Amino acid sequence: MFQNFPLFPGIPGGPELLIVLLVLVLLFGANKIPKLARSTGQAMGEFQRGRNEIEEELKQMENTDDDEEDDEATTASTEAATETTSTSTSSDSN
Fold it and tell me: Where does the chain cross the membrane (predicted)?
């Protein structure tokens, strides 16, 4: 009458995880599993640090690009205002 549907299909449940753990113990031995888990954790930490460094560099590059664009826009508007002022001054002199 009632059927049990997995909450997340395709993700191993309790019995499957126990079988995987048993296979790991048989392949690597009980002594090497903590070392294997530690090295895996260290590798994941290194990957995370590298990713964070790259993200920070990209943010800095975006900020410097935005600053350069703002500087260029300010310079262009200042030059345009200077040209307008000098043109109107030249016209007034005649």
Answer: 12-30
